[in-house]
Design the sequence.
């Protein structure tokens, strides 16, 4: 019998929080949105979670139909976890929370863990919307490759480097997020830029600077 608590309210928000409102659950979703993970990889990415609590969360998410594991033998290091269709449907929720939470990141990371593997999802949350420019920028975020395309009035963020870029920007994740959040201009962020610098600046501009 499960010991999970419920808000016991006939409300979509309450029912959602019954399933994803526990500590670490949405961070597990964040990790799995970036790709399948082993238990050890999840444990390393979620510094501070105990193995027993992580195992409990994965089991609960499996029972809820949010996460599935491959058919490797139990306790094998080859066991991998992935989001189901229902789990992947949480992506807009995660993206919205990342965008909403940016207001508490302007002071920088301090002593918090910074993992450049989070960059594609973070930039997807902050950059994918209307754009008044056209072009392609390759980003190198502490070794994580990302492409930002602007076409037909919209920007798109994808992992990896694709096609021929108009510019390349290399920066740490905190520096790049500061630029996108309009805390620091690209030219003063410490980022290394090659190619069309003016396009790179426009492509990474925060919403208020993008024009119609």
Sequence:
């Amino acid at each position: 019998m499960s010991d999970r608590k419920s808000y016991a309210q006939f409300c979509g928000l309450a029912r959602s929080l019954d399933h994803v409102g526990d500590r670490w659950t949405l961070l597990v979703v964040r990790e799995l949105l970036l790709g399948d993970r082993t238990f050890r990889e999840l444990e390393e990415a979620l510094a501070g979670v105990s193995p027993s609590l992580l195992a409990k969360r994965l089991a609960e998410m499996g029972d809820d139909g949010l996460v599935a594991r491959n058919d490797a033998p139990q306790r094998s290091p080859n066991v991998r976890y992935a989001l189901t269709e229902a789990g992947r449907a949480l992506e807009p929720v995660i993206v919205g929370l990342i965008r909403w939470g940016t207001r508490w990141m302007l002071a920088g990371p301090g002593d918090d863990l910074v993992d450049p593997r989070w960059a594609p999802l973070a930039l997807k949350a902050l950059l994918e919307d209307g754009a008044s420019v056209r072009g392609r920028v390759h980003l190198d975020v502490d070794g994580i490759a990302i492409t930002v395309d602007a076409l037909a009035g919209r920007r798109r963020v994808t992992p990896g480097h694709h096609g021929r870029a108009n510019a390349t920007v290399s920066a740490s994740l905190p520096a790049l997020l500061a630029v996108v959040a309009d805390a620091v201009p690209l030219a003063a962020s410490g980022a290394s830029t090659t190619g069309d610098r003016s396009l790179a600046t426009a492509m990474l501009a925060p919403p208020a600077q993008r024009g119609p």
